[in-house]
Amino acid sequence: MDLSQEIDDYIKESIEHALGLPVSTQTLESKLNASEAACNRLRQQCLYLQTRLKEKDDVIDRSRAESCMNAQALKKFVEENQKLAKECESLLGQCRRWENECSLYDHDREALMDFGNEADERAKEAEVRVHELEGELSRVVDELQFYKHQCEMQSVNNYHIYVDSSREGSAVEQLLLESLITTMVGNDEVTSTAHAFLQANSGVDVCQKLLNTWNSLKPSTRKILALAAEVKTLENDKEHLRFNLARAEEEVKVLFEENEVLHKENKRLLRHQKERCHPGSSEKRTGSASAKVRRIEYIIWHFYF
């Protein structure tokens, strides 16, 4: 079998080295060249590996810096989410408070509307009653004037006839007047009503004189006083109802202005909550408040217009 020159030289040099013979210069030079070549290759590999190691270190540094930035961004994002969650919770609580206030305003407004309607009806009834009483009084006065005129006409013809007719006319007049007043005013509380009316208006000279001569007053006079007391009471009730109605209208106006403020605030809260939260949840939680506000506006608009 043929061996290569290098293997042959290696075997030869091994035998010479074993025998203690000196190594040739050519062999040493070849080994030195081989060692230098190996060192060069190792140096190049070391430089290449150092370059790769530096690149990997740079990649690690960049990854570490990017991880640090991501961690800071994640921490900031978590803090921002926590802050947004707190704001959303605060907005939801405020919306619930607005819903409760809107429901209270709705209840108060309905109560005020009922009170205003009742006051209006009572005022109309009082006005109708006053007009009826005024008509009755005017009719009674007309009848009295008519009978007095008849008596005066009869007195021109004959004095005696005048005396008889005046007595008869006075009797008829008295009977008619008492019958009419009895129809309008009951007999149960005539005395107490008339006396209380005179006492309440004792500052007036006429009322004071009638009060001083109370025991000598005729029943018909007391009935007329009771009728006047009822008219005065109805007028006072009418004024009181008008005052209450005006005050109720003022309160409704104030509530309307407050409702406008609430409506604007509710719109602002809805817009702010839609910007911060998901649209679905904000619409569910604030829909009832918006519906109640629209209902209040509708009621106020119909109440005024």
Automatic annotation (TrEMBL):
Sorted UniProt keywords: Coiled coil
Protein name: Uncharacterized protein
Coiled-coil ranges (or none): 74-150, 231-265
PANTHER family in the record: EARLY ENDOSOME ANTIGEN (PTHR35689)
Entry keyword Coiled coil: yes
Taxonomic lineage from the root: Eukaryota, Viridiplantae, Streptophyta, Embryophyta, Tracheophyta
